[in-house]
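Appendix B. Raw example, untouched.
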Amino acid sequence: MSFPSPNCGERRGGARPDLVVIHYTAMASAAEARARLCDPAFEVSAHWLISEQGGTEQLVDEALRAWHAGAGAWGAVSDVNSRSIGIELANTGAAPFPEAQMAALERVLAGVMGRWGIEPERVIAHSDMAPARKSDPGPRFDWRRLAQAGLSVWPDVRSGGRPVAFRDHARRFGYPDVEEALILRAFRLRFRPWAEGPVDALDAAMAEDLARRFPVDGAAGAA
């Protein structure tokens, strides 16, 4: 199999991927994105690129470290590139994700997770691990659909929580150690994309549920 992007290297410290990071390309077409991800001058890449029409192309061998995540963290993981598979969806960030593209993503995700034993809670947004820098795959991406297919997770909330506890719960789920406003923005992009205003009881309840059921790195004390 040919992997056209030269922008990759060995995973540091013998790491194996145990995360999947989902992105949008923020470019006008999949062809433009492919050219960028395969151009050594730009020093960016991803393992998979999925077009609007559902075409899939593997740009980097999954055993290698692609350059898609940049600075950020998820739980104890700070070198996200060495511990993740990166999937780019051809989308400007302002458009819905077509059915053909979402169906193709589900097939790719199922394969990646099966090959590497990646759990659904380890499938995250680029904005989750880099909330100060990134907003992809953005508010139009259907995370609930992935969760219903067993390819990510979704909160199961029956009552409100304590807003003062939101940041601690979100961090136990995996969000990095940044200010609460940045965590809230990333959290809502994924779970409540049209919510506004300060952190509220529903944000807190959702974060608490995720922390209880899916504590990152097996963190103790999630309630």
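End of appendix B.
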